[in-house]
Amino acid sequence: xxxxxxxxxxxxxxxPSDGHRIIEIAAIELIDHVKTxxxxxxxxxxxxxxxxxxxxxxxxxxxxxxxxxxFSEIISRFLDFIKDDILVIHNAEFDLKFLNFELSLNKLNxxxxxxxxxxxxxxxxxxxxxxxxxxxxxxFDISIQERIExxxxxxxxxxxxxxxxxxxxxxxxxxxxxxxxxxxSYSIYQSREDSSFKRNxxxxxxxxxxxxxxxxxxxxxxxxxxxxxxxxxxxGLKKGSNI
Length: 243
Prior knowledge:
Blueprint: E1 3-11, E2 22-31, E3 34-43, H1 52-58, H2 62-65, H3 71-82, E4 86-89, H4 92-105, E5 115-117, H5 118-125, H6 133-139, H7 145-150, H8 154-169, H9 185-192, H10 209-222, H11 225-235
Parallel strand pairs: 1-4, 4-5
Antiparallel strand pairs: 1-2, 2-3
């Protein structure tokens, strides 16, 4: 079992060395690349004013975080959530720089988890293409309408990134439906058949009526008769066969 944590932050600015701080942090759990219902999310009081230039990006105002906990008050819960598991972050250098700064202020060690940077991963897989989160969402047909309307948000970006990450790894596996009705499978195949491969002379059926009726009985026993109806209608059986 592989446990990964998709993580994102929103901040007051670009660099903690300029006095900027985290104002929102979110993390969601993936088990074997599948999102679970476990997540960590909170807004944080940064102990400073949020500049208007930053507010325009994430729409997090000073009023929204004024009564929120300080980072020191949520550290334990955050570290308990991520544990020592793999972190999946888009542009990991940015988020880790802020997280490690906050940890250092509280005299705690830097994050030592293994990190998968989806920005680096995407650059390697799609050289020459834009690999911003928005661009990757568009590439994989993942809706960013809420991000456009509400601005960047750590929790929303985690959700989007979890879908992008799955696509970068190879995409969603199709559902296996072994019980689906194949009634039309024969006719669908025939409609797609290239006429250039059709025989000029139809081959005679080598199966006698008894063999076909035994086969029909077997198909009924295993519940697969629907898949063969088109075939039997094409070759025909004598009256009384009930196919």
